[in-house]
Amino acid sequence: MNWKLKGISLLLLSSMAVLSACGDGNNGGNSKSSAGISSPEASPSAGESGQQKKVKLVFWNTSYPTIDQNNKTKKKEEFYIYKAIKRYEEAHPGVTVDIQDVPDGTNAITKFQTAGIAGNGPDVTNLWSGNYTMDLKAFIQPLNSYLQKSDIDSMTGWNAVTENFADEGTIYGIPDGSDGTIGILYNKKMFADAGVDPEQNYPKNANEFLEMLKKLKASGVTPVGTGEDGDFVYFLDYWFAQMVGTPGINDIVNGKMDFHNDKLVEVMKSYLQLYTDGNVKTDQHETQFFNGKVAMIFGGFNLVNDARKALGDNLGMFKIPNYSEDALVKNGGIGGTGADFVVSKSSEHPEEAVKFILFLLSKEEQVERFKDGYGKLLNIQNVDATEFTQDPLIIRQQQWASEDSTIFWPDNIYPSELSDYISSLNALVIKSQLDTSDFLSKLDQKRNEILAQK
Amino acid sequence: MNIRTRESLAGYLSLLPTFLALAAIVFYPMVNTFIHSFTKWNGATSEWIGLRNYSFIFNNGELWTLLRNNIIFVLSIPGILLLSMIVSVLLFEEVRGWKFFRSLYYIPTILSSVVVGMLMKMMFAQSGVVNQFLHAIGLSDGTLEWLARVPTAFLVLIFCFYWQTLGQGVLIFLSGLSSISNEIFESANIDGAGWWQRLMRITLPSLVPTIIYFTVTNAIYCFIGLFPLVYSVTQGGPGRETTPIDYMIYIKAFQSPGQLGYSSALSIVLFVIVLLVSWAQIRLANRFEE
């Protein structure tokens, strides 16, 4: 073989080596070993019993803040999650946690799914709970065998991570705190100027609520601020769930009941009236509220801290009024455990991963992260919020979260594609570009399509 | 082995790494997508369902809305074609400040579509600079919701498309103009042809191949390249009114459980559409060229 052929053969072999290295996605999972995550010394098969087992957990962080928009010089080590990981590593010699920030929400779901297909997911990550998690169960470790009864008994929100939202069954995640209950945050001064006291004269139904908004509008202020999609998941969903009950929401999802039914058509009329009467501004609603440009917004615990900073004692809170006195669920709101921690099927250390998650969700750590300003309440059983906060609104939020009338996020119960579709169409409804009746019919059509493709 | 055989072997072996790379990066995913288009696939397990995915695509009515959205973008191509030609002719004629404008028009091309999209989203927000400007000159009350309404949301997306494509278009047409022999222009000058006659009789006919190239590549872009713009500006909304097919492929693949098979089928449908559109354009262009 002459030098030319030798060179070509060498080039060919090296090309094939490169291609085979990037060709098989399943090797991704094993690549952790080569990256030193599970070194031969660390492997139980190494059989070196005297040596400390070394475990490296990869944690895709989708929810803990690691950047301070107001203080870019703040070091990573000063953020809660880095301090918590340090505490965990000190308490568990041999375990290190490699934290990697990834985008949250639907982007996190996309990233986790693609990693799952490639077989190189993280050990631990945080996802939205309910169907958002269940949709990915092909890539998630069932956790029942890693959890003690005491772990389950100490926390709330397990329905959000258990298959079919049942009390018992296959558990795919560990509930991450509580979002509290979505209510109405309001500017006390604006309300007082309009002669309205929502807590003393709490509106009994949608009509009284609309009357209240009329008075606010007459005083020269914009009564409500909502997101561009009309706050469907915060507000409209609540009125829907009130009228059909939580079993009704399940019936809608399963096709036993239609969105287009008399009760929900009626709800849609009142909902649309909010907009057609000119009560609502949809442009940067939170900022507008903090700056005193709108009188109220729909929100839960996650907004209380920022609103308190902006409005001080001028901040008030009350529950979203019942749609009607005939509602099946009354005096509640939407809320609960909107997110969970999961262990990916690619994880080689599921037991250690669960231990790490349970550490993060221990009462002490949940209190620590609360003090750090993280936007979640505790999901510990029988927790007394006065132990860690003096803010009466936050104390009230923690109480509301544990009430039976708090309905678990319906958008986490609907198939995720349907939730996305509702939000996008709702933006057309509030701009009067789509008739409310057509809106409900389209939702039924989409739901039927999804069921037909199951 | 004689020298001719050895040379042939060396030639084929030299090409092999490229073919292997193409096979791994292009052909394998294509074949894989085609096979999965006949399955119900969640990324981990798949079940053969024959033509059911295709049947859904053509029967649920969504495809026609998506196609309509793509076609609206395709119909906007003549506008950017004309704009690119005008600007490139002006730059070619070296109007005052042409060096500065050449750079200015090219800058948006080097920005990623997501950056352009985010920028436009901020500019066209209800309290964005566009509304403030219109309000300041008395043309609106400053509350126009550009992205919440269908016609204006499309206008914003088409504006983004134009803004980002202009630099590339000008570059393509400038290279087309540079390839026209100066002698032709000089002869035309001697024969007394004016600027307009030179443009209509020499420049534009000489640019036909460039126009074809620009039109075909942008038509393909309007079917397969809009995702980043739509994702960052409108997210396909309001409703599904600005959702093109490639964005729906993303929604079905990553926001709908177990729909990777459906998404694969939709990808194959898009592939066939692009193939047909390109073929039709090239056929038409060839006839026009003749």
From TrEMBL, chain A:
Source species, domain of life: Bacteria
Q: InterPro entries given for it?
A: Bact_solute-bd_prot1 (IPR050490), SBP (IPR006059)
Residue ranges, annotated region (Disordered): 29-50
Q: TM segments?
A: none
Q: Which UniProt keywords apply?
A: Signal
Q: Indicate the secretion signal residues.
A: 1-20
Supply the Pfam families for this chain.
SBP_bac_1
Q: What is this protein called?
A: Sugar ABC transporter substrate-binding protein
Which organism does this sequence originate in? Cohnella abietis
Lineage of the source organism? Answer: Bacteria, Bacillati, Bacillota, Bacilli, Bacillales
UniProtKB/TrEMBL annotation, chain B:
Cite the InterPro entries for this sequence.
MetI-like (IPR000515), MetI-like_sf (IPR035906), UgpAE/MalFG_permease (IPR050809)
Keywords noted in UniProt = ATP-binding, Cell membrane, Membrane, Nucleotide-binding, Transmembrane, Transmembrane helix, Transport
GO function terms (MF aspect): ATP binding
Could you name the domain of life of the organism this protein comes from? Bacteria
- Give every ABC transmembrane type-1 domain span: 66-281
One GO cellular component this record assigns the protein to is: plasma membrane
Gene Ontology BP, a term = transmembrane transport
Q: Specify where it is mainly localized.
A: membrane
Q: Quick check: keyword Cell wall biogenesis/degradation in the entry? A: no
Report the subcellular localization.
Answer: Cell membrane
Residue spans crossing the bilayer: 12-31, 71-92, 104-124, 207-231, 260-280
Which membrane topology describes this protein?
Multi-pass membrane protein
Q: Which family does it belong to?
A: Belongs to the binding-protein-dependent transport system permease family.
Name of the protein described by the UniProt record:
Sugar ABC transporter ATP-binding protein
The major lineage groups are:
Bacteria, Bacillati, Bacillota, Bacilli, Bacillales
